[in-house]
Amino acid sequence: MSSLQEFQTRHDLSMEALCARILERHAATIRVKKPAVAVANLARIVETTLMLANRKGFHSMSLRDLTEQSGLSMGALYAYFDSKDTLLMMILGQVVGVVEEVLAHPPDGLANDPAARLRWLLRTHLFLTETMHPWFVFAYMEAKSFPQDGRDLAVGSEMMTESMIAVALADGVARGRFAVPDVMMAAALIKPMLQDWYVKRAKHRRRGITPDLYADQLIAFVEAAVGLKRA
Questions:
Q1: What is the pTM of this model?
Q2: What pLDDT, in 10s, does the model give residues 186-200?
Q3: What residues are annotated to bind DNA (predicted)?
Q4: What's the domain count of the chain?
Q5: How does 187-211 read in b/e, with b if 16+ C-beta sit within 10 Å?
Q6: Is the distance from CB of 19 to CB of 42 less than 8 angstroms?
Q7: Which pLDDT band holds residue 1 (cuts at 50, 70, 90)?
Q8: Which residues contact 28 (CB under 8 A, 6 or more apart)?
Q9: pLDDT tens track for 123-161
Q10: In a domain, 141, yes or no
Q11: Do residues 13 and 131 make contact, with C-beta atoms less than 8 angstroms apart?
Q12: Are 194 and 125 in a shared domain?
């Protein structure tokens, strides 16, 4: 996978596809049983929630705001979730689930090449956050107001991605490809550079930086920082 377009062709992360996964995860509690109707309404709910959260903050958003902006009645909303906290966990759970689904299983051919695996992790993470940009901005910006279970889920996901990076770095050190004295610290320093793309995307766009260019430059920077020895 070498480009954003290739990533998006390989992974269906459209709003409809993501909401279909939410429906599957929460089928026991969502009272609407017609999948097409449920997915369409979930898409309206999630899109509106992400928009309102970006505009005024999820904590300040009321369910009345959500009904007015989504066009769904209060009763219709309660057919999908019983509280704002449940809605938050639906959205956050989908973000965490996709991160694990996409990043936890690198191609088999990278198992014995830590440098290629690290490149794949960085590029894939960046393309994932670009494709699901409003979802990741929501998870990042709203983290401070999450309930405890939401904070635990968000922190766990962040630690999971850092651990994936650290494992690739440790493998590279063991094989003599990287010179990294503390792989966990290095992974913790790399993670904010990945987050910078989706948190400050407007700044990068004003400079004419595309996701593909950012990925290339980030990988070059990280490889220099970890002292990559070319095979």
A1: 0.94
A2: 999 999 999 999 999
A3: 62-81
A4: 2
A5: beebbebbbebbeebeebeeeeeeb
A6: yes
A7: low
A8: none
A9: 999 999 999 999 999 999 888 888 888 889 988 999 999
A10: yes
A11: yes
A12: yes
